[in-house]
Design a protein that fits this description.
Calcium-transporting ATPase, cytoplasmic transduction domain A; 26 strands; alpha+beta; 4 domains; Calcium-transporting ATPase, cytoplasmic domain N; 34 helices; 9-stranded mixed beta sheet; Rossmann fold
């Protein structure tokens, strides 16, 4: 039988222990057998192996091959810049691989955070003697002491309890303090048994003794740790697209390199020229600056999100949140403020709404004994000085005291004469004070516990008998408040005669009224829920709290509007099949309650199988596995546990659910901007490739060198591309539905625009500039030119300069696929202007600085070429604007 269903004596016997604890030698024997009381770690690949994996994926392998060929070519035929090219490509591989490797340690961080939940030292009975020991040295069968403010070091069965309450929110998600007692529990789930304290939870009030039943890997905390480590998060939508793009580009580049090497061989091209040709094809088709640009663009977006209180731990999550179709949100600390507050009181037969900071003086004048009882019947402690203090104890008692202090400012609580402590059997607390010259007993607790002790009821200025009709009316009101998700306490009192026996004080009480409390929702949550709905994002409540409370909060914030939402409890979820769960998720409004860690991960997996991109929010230890599994895990920065933050991709610095919506908007803008700079970057691939085709097919001197290709990909293109990544979100972005999960980053429309329209125009312009210089220099068709010939250097420089000039025009054109240039403006993106200025400056430096001339094989250009470059850029502008106008007209006619 499960140990929480055994009596305390039977539980001790089951673990072969006693009230005096284990003998020292037996404790040592068990420590060897059961191992240390630490959170279990799962074996992970070595860091070296993880690091090597980041440098051996397909895209990296292609770049390694290109770098190796370039290095071999430099050794074979030095002086053509191939060594510099090899070094640049290796630098690209190193930057990308190092960054990816840095992201692989989130699971380890999550486990370290779990370990910090365990106390360092505990008080334990060994052979009847009380001693302190390391928490890691505890074994099953130990008897330990639990004190207010301490963390529970292992899973325990309570043996003795005096007002003992624990907060299980980090493990179960339920925000109330749970009273514990040593009696037998009939609860099927040990996690919710009222005689069990779980490792990692905290003691809110009281003290007691407990029998250690599970340590180390056998605790509930370790079970969650295994889930958090074993849960392998899938790639984000952006990562999947980058993998697809790099695989496609890598295979294309390699295939074309081999194909044209064979073509050059068939055409009788000399071996050195053929190798140069093949390397050029590969380098021209691999956008070396793509991954660094994406990384830097995401980093810039992460900085913007941080300014909006969303801290990014994993860069791809910047964009992943923009793709979210479902947000699974926890309740406590996410939608609510993770504290208790009084919302309504029933006094004098009337109900009153209580504002958070509203005045209560008028009510206090009419019902002063009621507020005195709320203020005096408590067991809280205060920490801090008069300027900044904190109330510690049961959250409901803290809320009552805070309310009563507002009602009775300046009231000095008298000394406490006696106390009848709270326990789970009585479900109430009574305190005796000397007040106004006499003794007054104040009682507070569950209505079902307090009401039978009451014979009278307080009205505004008198006390009346409490008849059966009045009792029924109070019970009806309590049921009504509970149905709204409020937690209800009854408050009562009576005057006690001097010398009255302490036994039987709780009798003939005056029922003062009811207090209804809740964990209040955050003020900006309803608007955030509305914006999510407008953006086509579904929000589902997944909580460990009671279903009535969860449903009430869901209605209050507008998450549930219908009369009959689907409510599924964790126990029911455990009994249904995967197919039933997926069908249940089709319900238009659904709330999950009483969930544990495994339930949440199962919901995330079911949504992902339905094709949804899932964002999961949470703040507790129990949320960590689901945060890891979700496409995007969102943790609370203030109220969240270290475990949740370590497992998440995104941390909300202000704990506001509304910040998620702002982050979604930023993520959507990132994806739109990625397409803009992909168009910009891929366009230049065509004018980099065509010169090599012309070199082989037309038997002309090579119009563009490999080092000049790298100058475009890793130099002049990067800052303007980054500027496109910083474009502002379009005004209607959050009124569009989420993009389909199957939608590709590289769409046919994007590829056609880059490769079939903008790219060929740039290629034609680049070759035009090249032949313009050759023609002015008197070159004749079929004539060979030495690589050091000033005419040849000027011609290749003109080709390079033409590509850069047309890319300057292209960066403005890529700000929108449809809108004309005059609608997007020239001054709306300062970074874009800075990028263009830098691009032009780099062009001038490469052309005119002697050092750059030696590195990039350039030469000063004739003045006529500098007039030609703006004309080529202008031609690209005119042709693209004409294409946009035709596209807009066709879209208008089609609509």
């Amino acid at each position: 039988m499960e140990i929480h269903r055994l009596s305390a004596a039977d539980a001790l016997a089951a673990l072969r222990s006693s009230e005096q604890g284990l003998a020292a030698d037996e404790a040592e024997r068990r420590r060897i057998e059961f191992g240390p009381n630490d959170v279990e770690r799962i074996e992970r690949p070595s860091r070296l192996r993880t690091l090597l994996r980041e440098f051996t994926h397909l895209f990296a392998v292609v770049l390694w091959v290109a770098a190796g060929l370039a290095f071999a070519a430099e050794l074979w035929n030095p002086g053509h810049g191939m060594g510099l090219m090899a070094g640049a490509i290796v630098a690209v591989i190193a930057i990308n691989g190092s960054f990816s490797f840095w992201q692989q340690h989130r699971a380890e961080q999550a486990v370290e955070a779990l370990e910090r939940l365990l106390p360092l030292r505990v008080e334990v009975l060994r052979g009847g003697a009380l001693e302190q020991c390391e928490a890691s040295a505890l074994v099953p069968g130990d008897v330990i002491l639990l004190e207010e403010g301490a963390r529970v070091p292992a899973d325990c069965r309570v043996l003795e309890a005096a007002g003992l309450r624990v907060n299980n929110a980090t493990l179960t998600g339920e925000s109330v303090a749970i009273p514990l007692h040593p009696g037998v529990s009939a609860e099927a789930d040990a996690k919710r048994a009222t005689n069990v304290a779980l490792a990692g939870t905290s003691v809110v009030s009281g003290h007691g003794r407990a029998l250690v039943t599970a340590t180390g890997p056998h605790t509930e905390l370790s079970r969650i740790a295994r889930l958090a480590q074993a849960t392998r998060p899938g790639l984000s939508p952006l990562q999947r697209e980058i993998v697809r793009v790099t695989r496609l580009v890598s295979l294309l580049a390699t295939g074309l390199g081999i194909l044209f090497f064979l073509l050059g061989t068939l055409l009788g091209l000399p071996l050195w020229s053929n190798v140069l040709f093949a390397i050029g094809i590969i380098v021209a088709n691999v956008p070396e600056g793509l991954l660094p640009t994406i990384t830097l663009s995401l980093a810039m977006a992460a900085q913007r999100m941080a300014q909006r209180n969303a801290v990014v731990r994993h860069l791809p999550s910047v964009e992943a949140l923009g793709a979210a179709t479902v947000i699974c949100t926890d309740k406590t600390g996410t939608l609510t403020e993770n504290r208790m507050a009084v919302r309504r009181i029933l006094a004098g037969g009337r109900r009153y709404e209580v504002a958070e900071d509203g005045p209560l003086l008028e009510l206090a004048s009419a019902y002063r004994p009621f507020f005195e009882a709320c203020l005096l019947c408590e067991n809280i402690k205060e920490r801090g000085g008069p300027e900044a203090h904190e109330l510690l104890g049961d959250p409901m008692e803290v809320a009552l005291v805070e309310m009563a202090r507002r009602a009775l400012p300046g009231f000095a609580p008298p000394a406490r004469v006696a106390e009848i402590p709270f326990d789970t059997a009585r479900r109430r607390l009574s305190t005796l004070h000397r007040l106004d010259g006499g003794l007054v007993l104040h009682t507070k607790g569950a209505l079902q516990s307090v009401l039978p002790l009451c014979g009278r009821v307080a009205e505004s200025d008198t006390v009346a008998p409490l008849d059966d009709a009045a009792r029924e009316r109070v019970l009806e009101i309590e049921n009504e408040l509970a149905a709204q998700g409020l937690r209800v306490l009854a408050v009562a009192w009576r005057h006690v005669a001097e010398g009255e026996p302490s036994e039987g004080l709780e009798r003939d009480l005056v029922l003062g009224g009811l207090v209804a409390l809740e964990d209040p929702p955050r003020a900006d949550v309803p608007e955030a829920i509305r914006r999510c709905r407008e953006a086509g994002i579904r929000t589902i409540l997944v909580t460990g709290d009671h279903p009535t409370t969860a449903l009430a909060i869901a209605r209050e914030i507008g998450l549930v509007c219908g009369a009959a939402p689907r409510v599924i409890l964790g126990d029911s979820l455990a009994r249904i099949s995967e197919a039933q769960l997926q069908l249940a998720l089709d319900a238009p409004e659904i709330v999950f309650a009483r969930l544990d860690a495994a339930h949440k991960t199962r919901i995330v997996a079911a949504l992902q199988r339905k094709g949804e991109v899932v964002a999961m929010t949470g703040d507790g230890v129990n949320d960590a596995p689901a945060l890891r599994m979700a496409d995007i895990g969102v943790a609370m920065g203030k109220s969240g546990t270290d475990t949740a933050r370590a497992a998440a991709d995104l941390i909300l610095a202000d704990d506001h659910f509304a910040t998620i919506v702002n982050a979604v908007e930023e993520g959507r803008a990132v994806y739109a901007n990625l397409r803009k700079f992909l168009t910009y970057i891929l366009t230049s691939n065509v004018p980099e490739l065509v010169p090599y085709l012309a070199f082989v097919l037309l038997r002309i001197p090579l119009p563009l060198t490999i080092i000049q290709i790298l100058a475009v990909d890793l130099g002049t293109d990067i800052v303007p591309a980054l500027a496109l990544g910083a474009e502002r979100a379009e005004s209607d972005l959050m009124r569009r539905p989420p993009r389909p999960r199957s939608e590709r980053l590289l769409t046919p429309r994007l590829l056609l625009r880059a490769y079939a329209f903008l790219g060929p125009i740039q290629a034609a312009g680049a070759l035009a500039a090249y032949f313009f210089v050759l023609d002015r220099g008197g070159w004749g068709w079929g004539e060979t030119l030495d690589a050091a010939d000033p005419l040849y250097l000027s011609a290749t420089t003109a080709c390079f300069a033409a590509i850069v000039a047309m890319q300057v025009a292209n960066v403005f054109l890529c700000r929108s696929e449809r809108l004309p240039l005059w609608r997007t403006g020239l001054l709306g993106n300062r970074l874009l202007l800075a990028g263009v200025a830098l691009e032009i400056a780099l062009l001038l430096a490469v052309v005119h600085l002697p050092f750059a001339q030696r590195v990039f094989g350039t030469h000063p250009l004739p003045a006529a070429v500098w007039w030609l470059l703006p004309a080529l850029a202008g031609a690209l502008l005119v042709l693209e604007e004409l294409r946009k106008a035709i596209a807009r007209r066709m879209a208008h006619q089609g609509g």
